[in-house]
Amino acid sequence: MTSTKRVTSDGSVKTASLYLQLQELLRQQITSRQLAPEDAIPTERELAEEFNVSRITVRKAVDGLVYEGLLTRRQGAGTFVATRVEKSYSKMTSFTEDMISRGRIPSSKWLSKSAGSVNPEEAMTMGLSPGSLVYRFNRMRFADGVSMGLDYATVPGDCLPSLELVNDSLYEALEQFGTRPIRALQRLRAVAFNAEQAGLLDIPVGSPGLLIERRGFLADGRPAEFTQSYYRGDAYDLMSELSHNP
User: Fold this and answer.
1) CA atoms of 190 and 207, how far apart (whole Å)
2) In 3D, which of 110, 118, 179 has the Cα closest to residue 142?
3) What is the pLDDT of residue 104?
4) pLDDT tens, 27-46?
5) Predicted pLDDT of residue 112
């Protein structure tokens, strides 16, 4: 691989960096599906030998694609093409429904189920009185066996008769009891996974993530859920449709 030259708008000539060329080549292979989701890419040494560049150049190219979310590193295993899931931001659906609609197989691993008195944050967020009963559901989320994120959901006690009603899908249980939310307010922000979260998801500490906070409401305005979902930045996308009505 040799450096190339390009003419800029002011007429000067600049040389394209080798790592940018390699990065673009790998990007094209990913977007064209020559490298499919979950495929392992060649090692740094193999890429360096194939393209006759230094391992530092390879590392810099791969770092950029990891930052873009196109590649993901797995400790002790190598670097893989990221499996990304798009989530519509305009529809109120559960994780299970999202995955099934995309042809993925959803699954969850329970971290805990518990009942207790509402804490100050929950009381303020959901407008509950001190001492109110709430149920808490903490889970890991998977798509096709790949870890996607962590869910921490709180439901007012008057929305469910029992913890045991919730098996795989919280929304299915709420629907059976007639208390599935019909509208919600969501807030998104970027986060970095802490040591505990990263350990559960088997990703490096400090990896980028997306926090989605959802407050769901019933038709009469009563709160039905408060959920904090932490999704891997290399595996989850949000999509929204916008329109202009003059």
Assistant:
1) 11
2) 110
3) 77
4) 888 878 898 888 999 999 99
5) 95
pLDDT bracket for residue 100 (50, 70, 90): confident
* pTM over 0.85, yes/no: no
Q: Annotate the chain with three-state secondary structure.
A: CCCEEEECCCCCEEEECHHHHHHHHHHHHHHCCCCCCCCECCCHHHHHHHHCCCHHHHHHHHHHHHHHCCEEEECCCEEEECCCEEEECCCCCCHHHHHHHCCCCEEEEEEEEEEEECCHHHHHHHCCCCCCEEEEEEEEEEECCEEEEEEEEEEEHHHCCCHHHCCCCHHHHHHHCCCCCCEEEEEEEEEECCHHHHHHHCCCCCCEEEEEEEEEECCCCCEEEEEEEEEECCCEEEECCCCCCC
> Mind listing the domains of the chain with CATH numbers?
4-81 (1.10.10.10), 85-239 (3.40.1410.10)
Question: What are all long-range contacts of 199-202, with beta carbons under 8 Å and residues at least 24 apart?
Answer: 200/111, 200/140, 200/147, 200/150, 201/140, 201/147, 201/149, 201/150, 201/232, 202/74, 202/75, 202/147
pLDDT confidence tier of residue 13, bands split at 50, 70 and 90 = very low
Token representation of residue 182: 């019909």
